[in-house]
Amino acid sequence: MKIKDFKNTRARFLFPAFAIGLLILPYLATGQTRNGLSPAELKKLSLEELFSLEVTSVSKRPEKLIKAPSAIQVITGDDIHRSAATNVPDALRLTPNLQVAQLNSYAWIISARGFNALFANKLLVMIDGRAVYTPLFAGVFWDAQNVLMEDIEQIEVISGPGATLWGANAVNGVINIKSKSAESTQGLYVSGTAGTFLKNSLAARYGGKLGDNIHYRVYAQHFNRNHTSIPDSIDVADEWGMTQGGFRLDWEPSERDLVTIQGDLYGGAEKNDTVNTTLDGQNVIARWQHTFSQESGMILKAYFDRTWRRDIPSTISNELQTYDIDFQHNFTLGQSHNMLWGLGYRLMRDKTLNSTIFAGFIPQERNLQLFSGFVQDEITLTDDLTFTLGTKVLHNDYTGFEWQPSGRLAWRPGAWQTVWAAVSRAVRTPSRIDADYYIPAYDVPPDQPSVAGGPNFESEKVIAYEAGYRAQPFSALSLSLAIFYNKYNDLYSVEALPGTLTYQVQNGSEGRTWGLELSGTYQLAAWWRLRGGYTYFRKDIGPKPGHIFDTSIFGNDAHNIALFQSIADLPENFELDVTLRFVDELPQPYVPAYFAFDARLAWEYKDLELAVVGQNLFERWHSEWQGERGPEIPRSVYGKIVWRYQK
Amino acid sequence: MKITVGALSEKTLILAIMLIASGGTMPMQNHPALEYQIKAVFLYNFTQFVEWPDDAFATADSPLVIGILGSDPFGQYLDNTIVGEAGNGHPLVVERYEEVEDIAACHILFINIADKRKLQNVLSDLEGRNILTISDVQHFARSGGILQFFEERNKIRLRINLEAAKSADLNISSKLLSLAEVTIIQK
Question: Would an 8 Å CB–CB cutoff place A532 in contact with chain B?
Answer without folding.
Answer: yes
